[in-house]
Amino acid sequence: MRRIAILAEGAFEWHYGKTGIGVIHYGKDPVVAVIDSTQAGQDVSQALGASFGQGIPIVRNIHEALAYQPNALLIGIAPMGGALPKAWRWQLLAAIEAGLEIISGLHMFLADDEELKAAADKRGVAIWDVRRPPDKNRVAEFLPHRPGSHTVLMVGSDCATGKMTVALELDREAQRRGLKSAFVATGQTGIMISGNGLPVDRIISDFVAGMVEEMVLDFTTTNDWVFVEGQGALNHPGYSPVTLGLIHGSMPDAMIFCHKAGSTTIEGYDNCPLPSLARMIQFNEDTVSWVRPERPCKVVGLALMTHHLNDQEARKAVKRAKDETGLPATDVVRFGAGVLMDALSKYFAL
Amino acid sequence: MRRIAILAEGAFEWHYGKTGIGVIHYGKDPVVAVIDSTQAGQDVSQALGASFGQGIPIVRNIHEALAYQPNALLIGIAPMGGALPKAWRWQLLAAIEAGLEIISGLHMFLADDEELKAAADKRGVAIWDVRRPPDKNRVAEFLPHRPGSHTVLMVGSDCATGKMTVALELDREAQRRGLKSAFVATGQTGIMISGNGLPVDRIISDFVAGMVEEMVLDFTTTNDWVFVEGQGALNHPGYSPVTLGLIHGSMPDAMIFCHKAGSTTIEGYDNCPLPSLARMIQFNEDTVSWVRPERPCKVVGLALMTHHLNDQEARKAVKRAKDETGLPATDVVRFGAGVLMDALSKYFAL
Question: Residue B174 belongs to what domain range?
């Protein structure tokens, strides 16, 4: 079993720290400390204002973290572009020196860094670059899923709109109901949580759909419900190809639309306003019909991210989204995924 | 200057041989011989039934090709998946032995093949893997093009529907009219023809749009008309992410829709019927509005591929497409690109 220390220096908050937070919240292995000198002294629950993470200390640096006897150091941020902040190098080297496995979801592979690689080899320590794509390549073959299986893909209005969390919560809810269900990871955090999956944004564009198809076919063979983590957004100027590859690779039977309440532009692109919810839902559904016109795919529910709102505001936001789209809506973290699982069950029973 | 021999063993025909044919038809450097033992003895024009290629001999193998004193051997096929046919290896080794540069657009990089690499190093011969992506990565920034520039992207119903040819013919036609125009290559053949460009299908999905954006911005800085070669199709189950990356990266001002007359399914996917022309045009246009709703992009003309039809059938097919869509249509190879250039000029004058 891993005992994980998370490196999240200066960034242990909901947006940039989402990798670390996801592993704390949903991972199987215990997190024993979080490194963020700007919040040292608190515990995770206090720092985030979250209902989880009580008793997990936030510490100043790797030296303090070692007191909690971790055997792995996990890089807990997901910066745009994916480079390694220079100021972290000494902490990684200290962790390797102390015999910790290194787990990273950065775009740049730590095992390809000469200094880190040499240190890890010398100490006999593994570096797991979660984002390293498989050597294999595969073009999508447009194969049908096992009849009776239900593939549900999370889509959304932007990156960081809760797509992974919603898939994880739906999987938990399905299992709670006694259904044979699986979560399919498509990004670094999901892969760290589930121990498998595909770093979709690292795959060569010709093979994105094909590699996703193969993975989803595997899951649908042995599961009745397959909840696929989504990535990016069709209306994102940079990441839309990843999103479309996921849609055409997973060929979902239904979708859940994820949105951060109140967002009006793509994060980091002030000149790129979000279309209305109804419009985004329509064009996400439309993409399935481009290749499978005979069997449309519907968005059957909305998952709102409302952690930046108080309870009353959150309820208002959920009601507004419901009224605007005519679809069931909730915040799965705040109110549970039951409403969405009900909607899916009803949809497939029809 | 290069003197090119093209290796197209068993596949020197319009579909699988399109790389070699493109270089013969549009490239700047002369092709001195084509290797295809199944058609040896003819010239290129005879073998293809084409209006170009007179006097370029088709020969049995590399040994016969060497009589025409090539200084480069270009692999002239584009197979699905992109692997190197095993039976070709000896011919590549013989070419290297004879001092020829090797030019390849295959997915597998010949310079990474130990045997070929060792032979090339020993003989001091270069291996140019056209599909090798740049080391650089870049996320799209959604930057505006130079005002007054016109970016025109080719889209289509499938792979191999003439997108590169149409972009090249439009560029020629624009230059004929005295316009400052450029062709932007996005695939192996286009890159071989123009000497630059981006192998879009080899780029990591997170960076497809960003790398295309940077290249197109460069071209729009110094050209008034920028004709971008398209790839794949939005309704292709495997390659749609490449297509969307090209659309969102190039952010075109107008599009030309390319289609092989009479096609009814995606090539190689019998269970994937083509939507109607009107429907395909609609959803290609729609994708631009996802990120740029304030300024829609229109398909302003249709380019039909009709080389498999006789003249009368071709005229009928063009008329049918015009009637079906209400758009100007032509086959640029058979009838010239004038009709489409007229339509574009009119569109931008409005």
Answer: 150-349
